[in-house]
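To make this tangible, we now present a fold written out as tokens:
***
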Amino acid sequence: MINLIWAAMILVGIITALMTGHMEDVNAGIIDAGSDAVSLCITMLGIVTMWCGIMKIAERTGLMKKWSSKMSPVMRFLFPRLSPEHPAYEYMCTNIIANIVGLGWAATPPALKAMQELAKDNKGSKSASREMCVFLILNISSLQLIPVNIIAYRATYGSEHPTAIILPGIIATVCSTAVAVLLAVIINKRGK
């Protein structure tokens, strides 16, 4: 469906450009956007590679296990039916920690692994389990202390103060995470 929406928007834009005589502007925009996209991808590749590497080092040195054990009270509150020995547990902790430190891209692989492990417990059901719903809500709310990706985007596009987003980002994500925790409590109090 989203592909149809994008295709329709592009088609409307091209038709409008043809009808108004601005096709040269569209062509220039396509070329400029392509160049910007490649530059941004190269910049973000370096940042993502560095942070994914740091996360991998933290995992291999046992730091992630240590952080996961520190998160145990929070995890028990949010996921009362999930055992710390569950295969998804450490992936979930890794995802939450990566999101908190602003590494959204580094948080995605452990989130996918956690969902795969949680899906195994769901015994082929087409409906998501409570743990899957709570984890998804928390992942979407994404509490972040330092929004690394946004700071990198702002720096790439020439912002004078790329880190000015930190305080508003903390406020916004604290609010969204508070709502997510409230929803988690409601989900956990309801039956399956």
